[in-house]
Design brief:
By secondary structure, the protein is an all-alpha fold. The protein has one domain. It is 78% helix and 0% strand. It is built from 8 helices and no strands. Helix 2 crosses helix 3 and helix 4 runs antiparallel to helix 5. It is flat, with a radius of gyration of 20 Å.
Length: 179
């Protein structure tokens, strides 16, 4: 646990790592809003009856409409998933910056592997949407509606996997390379 704390302190001390956390967290949240509200905002931009400024402000209000789009549980999943994703990418960035030369010389591409593993886990909040698309190819799309919370459990499982990936990456950042 002390490796996690020291790694988190390291990424919050470094300016570049803080920038990576903030940027990726905001990008993940904007991507989630784009998936949820993007088409509705685009439809509003097509209203010819309204003046252009009114269309633009209404489209922005629709795009950032969090209250009608998310439940409390899905908002918690989206926020925690985006924040943990930002921390995970910042840890990977710091790991590559600190030990990138050693990793490349030694042939251990674990930093890149962890980055791709993170992308494989995906966003914890939209893991349910991704899983429903994959399962629908096999005819299992109704399985999510049979779950007690209509598939939100998958988002929480994805969040747990993201925590595990962050913890293991924090250990790699904190521990020196040994043979």
């Amino acid at each position: 646990m002390k490796h996690l704390v020291s790694s988190l302190q390291l990424i919050f001390i470094r300016k570049d790592s803080r920038f990576v956390i903030i940027t990726t967290t905001v990008l993940f949240l904007l991507l989630l809003l784009l998936v949820q509200n993007g088409s509705a905002a685009q439809n509003i931009l097509g209203f010819e009856v309204l003046p252009p400024f009114k269309r633009f402000t209404l489209a922005l209000a629709t795009f950032f409409d969090i209250q009608n789009t998310f439940t409390i549980s899905s908002l918690i999943l989206a926020t925690l998933g985006s924040l943990l994703g930002g921390i995970n990418i910042s840890l990977a960035y710091t790991y590559i910056r600190m030990r990138g030369e050693i990793v490349v010389k030694s042939g251990l591409y674990s930093g890149v592997g962890l980055f791709f593993a993170f992308l494989g886990i995906g966003c914890a909040a939209c893991g349910t949407a991704l899983l429903s698309v994959v399962l629908s190819f096999f005819g299992f799309s109704t399985m999510l509606s049979l779950l007690p919370y209509q598939g939100e459990e998958i988002g929480y499982i994805g969040l747990i996997f993201l925590c595990i990936a962050t913890y293991t990456l924090a250990q790699k950042v904190a521990l020196p390379n040994v043979c």
